[in-house]
Amino acid sequence: MTAEKLPGEEKTVSEPVTDPEASPKAGVEREDAQADPVLTPAVGEEATPIALRKGMWSEGAGDTSGYSRIVRATDWPAPSEPPFGSWYDQVHARLATLVADPYTKVVLDRGELTFHIPREKLSEAMQALRDDALLRFEFCASVSGVNYPDDVGAELHVAYHLQSMTHNRRLRVETSCPDADPHVPSVVAIYPAADWHERETWDMFGIIFDGHPHLTRILMPDDWVGHPQRKDYPLGGIPIEYKGTTVPPVEARRSYR
């Protein structure tokens, strides 16, 4: 009599099960799950994607979900051209009047307008967005970072969500900087509420906000090495002890592929 294998033990079935009626019991992983020899994206082959994601999650540890056949190409939203409709055209034209060449591109996607502004123009543009009577975006709700390793020369992005209380409007502003020169002007002097948001973005992504009054870590210890939300940061970080049991980092665990 063969003892049943425990969850996580090495699989012994090397050939896929072809019987459609053969299905695992509830809560039991199929032993016949086989890795695909060739992974081909279903869409976006002609476009340059931001990233190519395989399985249920992105690349990293081995795919333990059983969805290794899924391949998704994440593409950049296409740049938009005016007229955009609604109040978008007015705001777009007004900022272009106040700041010379403020846009690298403008994106209207899923009802959200995003101004992509070069970092050299960021302070001037944000000042105009706040102070001009026709714009009047008085509130900066959040500052957050994104890491796109494949966006050569602009690997680090910063996104700002602005709100106009006067006109009841919301606007998204985005700027970028290269990994080799991770500097972006601070907007704390314009939007004081951005103080801790910029500190968190520095802490997690390593983006340096020039002119920030006190740019220090806010979530990680002061002596922490690295920035945990960067894509090149090791998954799992450090080994974890829990009630006497050591759990290794994710990248050190056994792959199910």
Please explain how this structure is put together.
The protein is of the alpha+beta class and 257 residues long. The protein has a domain at 88-210: NADH:ubiquinone oxidoreductase Nqo5 subunit (Beta Polymerase, domain 2, 2-Layer Sandwich), CATH 3.30.460. It is built from three helices and eleven strands. Strands 3-4-7-6-5 form a five-stranded mixed beta sheet. A two-stranded antiparallel sheet has the order 1-2. Strands 8-9 form a two-stranded parallel sheet. The chain is globular and about 60 Å long. Mean pLDDT is 80; it is low at 7-11 and 23-47.
Topology of this protein?
Elements: E1 49-54, E2 71-75, H1 88-98, E3 105-109, E4 112-116, H2 122-131, E5 139-147, E6 156-164, E7 169-177, E8 183-185, H3 195-205, E9 208-210, E10 240-242, E11 245-247
Parallel strand pairs: 4-7, 8-9
Antiparallel strand pairs: 1-2, 3-4, 5-6, 6-7, 10-11
TL;DR of this structure?
With 257 residues, the chain is of the alpha+beta class.
Overall radius of gyration? 24 Å
Shape: globular
CATH superfamily of the domain at 88-210: NADH:ubiquinone oxidoreductase Nqo5 subunit
Are there runs of 5+ residues with pLDDT below 50, and where?
A: 7-11, 23-47
How many extended strands?
A: 11
Structure classification: alpha+beta
CATH topology of the domain at 88-210: Beta Polymerase, domain 2
